[in-house]
Amino acid sequence: MYGVYMSIRSGRPRLDRVRVIDTAIDLADAHGLEGTSMRNVAEKLDVTPMALYKHIANRSQLVDEMLDRVLEEIASTPPADDWADAVRARILAARRVLVRHPWARDAIESRPLATPAVLAHMDSLMALMFDGGLSPELVHHSMHALSTRMWGFTRDVLPTPKPPDDPEERARAMADFAESYPAIVRMATTSPHAGLACDDDAEFEFALDLLLSGIERLNETNPKMGVDQAGRMLPTEPGLSG
């Protein structure tokens, strides 16, 4: 009887760059950027960490690749007659992506150099502004004003003390707080959108619209805005100085 020789292939998919990055993104979505080490990715793929280095040089490159992959999800926005509407639509599209991948915020802010997808997003926003007739100076100031909002998020810092758990202590603390900071308490207790009712999406769009409206007003009243030697915005048309 003749022996039959068979090739047995593993049912495990072949390890490649795409699988490594996809797995790292899944881990980051579930555990954040801190939980996405090369070792954790290797364990998820059931390979040794050394196997990853055939495809990714180090963790920094991995994060760059992860970031560029998710930023590719920013949907193309339809043409708009108004540059501000087009910029707004693209920024809100970026916000939807970062809501799906919250770790991307930390990745954007921690990268030592801008990745190609980061540069492409910034370039697209600037191109929309230039197409709308904004001067290079106003585009420069606008990008600084937008800051992280160009990615659909902000780093708002509103630290307030945590009330004591004991009801009597809490009442005394709130009374003292109201006496010391009456405007904060007035806003927190009378605004229908304060506290738990605060809508993060609405607040983001409110701030974004304020910025875009201000930029649009500057473009309409002073389209050739310049800056002085100290870097301060300086009107170039007569009668517009403050």
Provide an overview of this structure.
The protein is built from eleven helices and two strands; from the N terminus they run αααααααααααββ. The chain is flat and about 65 Å long. With about 240 residues, it is mostly helical. It has a two-stranded antiparallel sheet with strand order 1-2.
Give the SSE map.
Elements: H1 17-31, H2 38-45, H3 49-52, H4 59-71, H5 83-100, H6 103-110, H7 116-131, H8 136-146, H9 167-180, H10 182-190, H11 200-221, E1 226-227, E2 233-234
Antiparallel strand pairs: 1-2
Properties at a glance:
single chain; 242 residues; mainly alpha; two-stranded antiparallel sheet; 2% strand; disordered C terminus
* Averaged pLDDT: 84
**What is the CA-atom radius of gyration, in angstroms?**
25 Å
Strand percentage lies at: under 5%
Fraction of residues in helix: 55-70%
What's the helix count? 11
Q: How are helices and strands ordered from N to C?
A: HHHHHHHHHHHEE
- Stretches where pLDDT is under 50 for at least 5 consecutive residues are 4-9, 227-231, 236-242
Largest sheet: 2 strands, antiparallel
Oligomer kind: single chain
Q: What's the total count of β strands? A: 2
Task: Give the helix/strand class.
Answer: mainly alpha
How far the N terminus sits from the C terminus, by CA atoms, comes to 101 Å
Apparent shape: flat
Strand order of the largest sheet: 1-2
